[in-house]
Amino acid sequence: MSSASTLPGRPGNLTTEEEAKLKELWLVTLKVFGVSSPADSESTSPPPATPTAPAALTVEEDPDSAISLSPDSRKKSRKSFGRFLGRKSRPEKETEKKESLVQEIAISVDASDDKYGHTADFRAALANQTPAELREAFWGMVKCDNPDGLLLRFLRARKWDVEKALVMMVATMNWRSKELNVQGIIEKGEGGYAADADQGFIKQLRMGKSFLHGCDKEGRPICLVRVRLHKQADQSEEALEWYTVYIMETARLMLRDPVDTAAVVFDMTGFSMANMDYAPVKYLIKCFEAHYPESLGICLVHKAPWIFQSIWSIIRGWLDPVVASKIHFTKSIEDMEVFIPRSNIIKELGGDDDWEYSYLEPIPGEDDPITNGTSIRAQLQAKRDEQVIEYEALTRTWIAAGADDSEKVRNERFGVAALLRDGYWEMDPYMRARTAYDRTGVLGVKGKLDFYSYKTNAPIPVAKKVVETSADDID
Questions:
Q1: Burial letters for 370-382: b for 16+ Cβ neighbours within 10 Å, e otherwise?
Q2: Does the pTM exceed 0.90?
Q3: What is the pLDDT of residues 357-389, one digit of tens each?
């Protein structure tokens, strides 16, 4: 794996203007989550701050503060957005809070710049979910990410427009928790889908329609899609969508700082019109553009036959120009080697990596910690909740900090972000069903990543290698 450096617009590598935008987004995000002021005493969220943590400053309270909205954020339709930021907090019931939020955030996004209807989803989320539910969905998505990194994905995707980033992020939280139930898919896992009457999900894993293996020259994990294996009749559209999200969520666990994107290779070898299916292509594009922004680093379309040219002309019209710019067509191993070391290209594609996909079936009992470890999970979650509260309090301090204190608070936030990352891996066995990557040692204990363990070690069933946490191990 290459020693990738931190790219611009990421945690630890922000310009002054970018950091200001990040502070703006955090300010309104915490407001939406109902934790921006200790005055929100009736929220069902945990206490938002330690006694010494200052309440969040608002635009009305300190119009000259660095945390005030930038001028472009207060123009025209953004006026009500600014009023929302400046609203004094007061004790309210959750239902009143929802109604208040809907009324006070009068966001207007140009329909030509709202491809996936995020504005409507945003309003639906505020109307139908409590601040505590949206907050829970957000921190559930953070997992082992740096929380700043997650917000920055949405900011970069929306060209640093704070309002659009907020709308996109909240719409995604609504999609994850209400529309799709991403956590439910993760907890059910391969063992659960293998026991289903509908075998569409597990069939795709068994045949190796797509899989994660190795890294490109930038250290990005590679997802290889063998297009010739797709047949529309093999699975329902719903099973295909679950499978797509499952692979993307698994890939997220393989990102290691500073790498925060993945590489996708579509192997078109043996492709025919019998493999063509526009629905999953549209869904994958929507996932990358609408719900997993800034997650695609590069996409290679390998050995596309001539019949794909007319298909590509249609698909290209669906793509955001930024996403389209990341797609490259390769015809030979030499073309592919521009992006992936030959040593990391599997022999199936003409490379030197002597590895073949083989699905290792779920092992009975491997997911027992999810059902039998509820008390331990609760204790670990309580520990994480305290870390989240500390992080949110430090974030408010960082937003309000002057130049002299900013660096100190910034470092403290990074420290708590590291605790959240490590704490996720403690919780992982109790909330995520095991994957084939756990069973083969690619994803090891506490998230250790090793794509090439097969070169020296035989696969070790996860049931024999996962050491469960006991109540005595939790601080």
A1: beebeebbebbee
A2: no
A3: 999 999 999 999 999 999 999 999 999 999 999
